[in-house]
Structures are given as structure tokens and as C-alpha cells.
From TrEMBL:
It comes from Saponaria officinalis. Pfam families: Syntaxin. Residues 104-123 are annotated as: Disordered. This is Syntaxin N-terminal domain-containing protein. Signal peptide: none annotated. SMART domains: SynN (SM00503). Keywords: Protein transport, Transport.
Amino acid sequence: MNNLISSSFSRHSENSTDVEMGVTITGVNLDKFFQDVETVKEDLNDLHDLHTKLRSAHEETKTAHTAGSVKELRSRMDRDVGQALKKAKLIKVRLEALDRSNAANRNQDGCGPGSSSDRTRTSVVGGLRKKLVGKMEEFQELREKINGEYKETVERRYFTVTGEKADDHIVDVLISTGESETFLQKAIQQQVFF
């Protein structure tokens, strides 16, 4: 009888360890998962830092007086936007890898759909995905703000030169052709020669 009882305890101890030690049942260990999650969180923090740099560079463009400094700020902003896009794509790839890892984990014993491990993994990845979407919305709002303010600047330049209010079509043509930057300069040069 003692052998029957001791063998059932030993079988149980082979499959699991002490809960107080923080070790869980085989297959439910989430250490690698949370390492990957931390990597994604660091990337999201980098994305936040890039957004902050873009916002401050945009504010600097409002006070810059020389064409060279504005050009340098714009090229820096373009680099930051490029880095942000690369970082967002990397985060998306990592989230997809986490999704695949979650799907593979569901095939392990005790980790099937609805298990605490599955719910934890799913909710964490969903939260990270929601943060990424929020960050991308912040970038889109900043982009719209920058474009709106630039359109206003072009409209003011057009009004200064022609004395007429520009309609949206004219402003869009000036921006798309690149003449919005040289429009005021050409008008000043024509005034100097006459």
C-alpha cells in the first residue's frame, strides 16, 4: 500500500514542481514568451521616442529662419519617419511571430484553447497590438497636423504674392509640383527686377 501511494506522488512531482518556486507545469513556462514581449515593448518605446522627436522637430521648423536650417530639419524629420516605419514593420512581424508561437503552444498538454496560459498569451499580444495601433494613430494625427499647417503656410504665401485667396486645387498643385517652396522667392525676384 505504501508503494502505491508513494508512486502516485513521485509521478506528480515529475510533471510539475513547487508552485511557490515560480516554476509551472511542463509546457506552460512563459519565460521565452515574456522575453519576446519585452523586446516588443522596447520597440514600442523606441517608436514613442521617434514620435516625440518628430513633434519637437516640427515645432523647431516654425521658429527656424534660414532655409538651410529648415532643410536640415526636414531631412531629419524624413529620417525619423523612415525609422518609425521600419520599427512599426518590425513590431508587426514580431507580433505575428508571437501569434504563431501562441498557436503552437496551444498544441501542448495543459495549454489548449481557454487555458490560463492561452488566455495570458492572447491578452498580452492583443494589448501590444492595441498599443501599436495607438502609436500609428498618433503618427497619422501628427502627419495630418503638419500637412494642414503647411497648406496654411502655402495659402498665406499665395495671398501675399497675388492678393487673392487660393482655393484648395491651387494649393495642392503648388505643393505637388514643389513650387510652394519657390513661389514666394520667384515673386520677390520679379519685384526686385521691376
